[in-house]
Structure formats: structure tokens, C-alpha cells
Amino acid sequence: GDGGQVIDRATMVKTRGWGLTKESGGRYNNSLGEMNSYMQMTFEDRGLSALERHRVRMTSCWLSQEALRDPVVACRLGNLYNKEALIGALLNKSVPEDICHVRALKDVKQCSITWKEAENEEGRRRMVCPVSREDLDAGSSRAVVIWTSGAVVSSKSLKELKMKECPVTGRAFDPEKDVVPLAPDAEELARLRERLPAPAAKKR
Length: 204
Prior knowledge:
The chain has helices at about 10, 40-45, 50-60, 85-90, 155-160, 185-195, and strands at about 70-75, 80, 110, 115, 125-130, 145, 150-155, 180. By secondary structure, it is α+β, with helices and mostly antiparallel strands.
């Protein structure tokens, strides 16, 4: 009643390489006063190397910044989300502009991820390739999702074995159209944006 500002959690949160996040309504906040995209903030953090940024994107939900946990979904731009967080954003109509191509759950693919218990990391699970068993979330190996099946595999395994059938489900896929790189670099992201389906015209 005194006209003072209400300080929300997003305004007060402090992260590595940053001071305080911007106030409600700023670039990193949506209408609810929450951070619009943790990844946007992280990528501008000069304290993170390219390898560390990749690791963050492969282990954290793009929306909530929480650790990935099943069920995990991916979008056509190679972002990973906790399904629960994405459903919340869709229901609240607070989906960031960067992922405006996600309008409903039909625009994402539920991922089939192979996990293993990490050693010396307090039991945290690691994402691994079901073919080569190499870590996919450490930043050194590139991962893709096969859109027809949702399987997350190493891009190296697909190329070396020249696969046209999913190694997890046996479902056929087109290597040119159905393989989406996860946590893509700038060049890959540009190609993925070009491949996005054109938005459907609104009915009058």
C-alpha cells in the first residue's frame, strides 16, 4: 500500500559471473517475474567456457534450470526440457519468444534416454549413448535425438554405423530429416531454424 517494490525470487537470485538478475519485466523475465530463460543468462556469462556451456545445456532443463529428469522432451531446435516444466509454461502461456515454435506438446518429442549411475558424483546419473556407452552430457561428445523414435544417441555412432534404423526401437528414420542435434552450436541452430515447419495460418 506504500507503493514500494515487491522483490521476487528472480530479482534476488545471484549466479556465477553475474550480479543480480534483472527486475521483473526485464529481458530475462517473463510476465510472472520468473527468469525467462536460464540458458539466455548462462550464455552471456563470460565465466563459462564453450565446453561448460554445452554441459549445462545437456544436463539442465532449458526452461527451469533444474537437472534433467524423466520424462524429458526435446524441441526441433535441439533444446531439452523437463516435460513438467514445459507443460507449466504452456498452461501459463509463459513460453519464451525464443521457443515460440513450441505451441503444444505435439511440437516436442519425448526422449528415450539411456542413463548410468555416475561414479564419484554423489550418485548423479549420466546420459550415455545406448550404442557406444560414451557420456553424452560431459560436453566432449555430441548427441542427437532421432525424431521418429525419440532415442538420444551419439552423432558419431550414427555416422560410423550409417544407421537408418533406430538402435533402440528399430524404427526407420531419414538421416537427413529426422536427426536433430542436441545443444546445437550456432551453425547447427541456424540450419534447424530453417527446417522448422511454417506456422499454421490462424482460422478466422
